[in-house]
Amino acid sequence: MKEIPEYSTGYWSLHGQSEVIGDALIKCVEDKTNVTTAVDFAACLAEKIDTVPNNAADCAKRLNINYDDIRTCPFSTEGKKLLKESQELADKDNAVWSPTVIINDELYCLWHSTPCKATKDEDFLRAICDAYKGPTPVGCK
Asked: Which of 29, 60, 84, 121 is deepest in the core (most CB within 10 A)?
């Protein structure tokens, strides 16, 4: 993403405004709820990636998120602030591809490049679960 104030979201992205709006909606859900709900919302959006953001209302309904709370967020001052913070974090971590995965401040995978310690999808979950400190999350059992 690149900050360009002329766009309604304030950002340009390789895949267009639908990608920026989807990213902003995910950040808005995280801001209004929690990271777990935001990940679930992102996964729901990704089920029909070619319909983002038009599928956002259905995903919100499925996850019991009040869509009115997030509908205009991508175009609001708050939404633009959340995108900017997310972009600054990505820049700080030198994230240039999606996904760029950092676990405990160490680069685990830079997609389409090296190093990527994952050879299959399950490797990501295993690495995160192995590094997690605290009670074992349900997804790691």
From this structure: 29
